[in-house]
Design a protein that fits this description.
With 193 residues, this protein is of the alpha/beta class. The protein contains six helices and eight strands, in the order αβαβαβαββαβαββ. The strands form two sheets. It has a six-stranded parallel sheet, with helices on both faces. Strands 7-8 form a two-stranded antiparallel sheet. Helix 1 packs across helix 2. The two termini are 30 Å apart.
């Protein structure tokens, strides 16, 4: 088991959302801008004691997650654009050097987590990047499907802004992708197989 500790305080709405997500192995957080989705994520990571991959699509979002989580997680590794071969190798060595008893949090853009990336200890994915193609979704979720002796369950949290119609349509396609991979999806309190 890894050891992380949340040292912040959630608002009542954040706490309600976080506790609801904690009950499930797959979760969708639909919330407005400035709701505090990053803080809810930090709370979930600390509460579940997980080895987490956070996938984002923009550098600004990566920096936001890193800034907010560095107070809660000891071992944060960032994979971002512009990293040369030596820097990527150093990051890979840093990941390997983290003992199984310590948490690891990897924040990356999808392009750096594609084919060839492997850290079997990862058990939780925060998908904070809009996408709709099933193949990409399978590739990202596949980062969690590696076998490891300390892994007992895989959890995916999908962040979506349903108020933006294009993002809602992309999310609908992701739901079909999750089901195709065998995930159970809960919508409006009902489990949809």
């Amino acid at each position: 088991m890894v050891q992380t500790q949340f040292q912040g305080e959630l608002t009542s709405l954040q706490k309600q959302a976080a506790e609801s997500l904690l009950k499930e192995d797959f979760g969708v957080l639909c919330a407005t801008t400035a709701f505090g989705k990053t803080v809810v994520g930090a709370w979930l990571i600390a509460r579940r004691q997980t080895n987490t991959l956070i996938l984002v699509h923009r550098r600004q979002l990566m920096d936001q997650w890193h800034e907010r989580l560095q107070n809660f997680v000891r071992n944060i590794v960032v994979l971002q654009g512009g990293m040369g071969k030596k820097k990527r190798q150093a990051v890979a060595e840093k990941l390997k050097a983290i003992p199984d008893t310590e948490e690891r949090l990897l924040i990356a853009t999808g392009r750096y987590i594609g084919e060839g990336f492997d850290d079997a200890r990862l058990d939780t994915l925060f998908l904070v990047s809009p996408l709709s193609w099933r193949g990409t979704l399978q590739q990202y979720a596949g980062r969690l499907h590696r076998l490891h002796s300390h892994k007992h369950k895989v959890v995916i949290y999908d962040y979506v802004d349903e108020q933006v119609s294009q993002l809602a349509r992309m999310f609908s396609k992701r739901l079909a992708g999750y089901r195709a991979m065998g995930y159970t999806v809960e919508e409006d309190g009902e489990v949809k197989e």
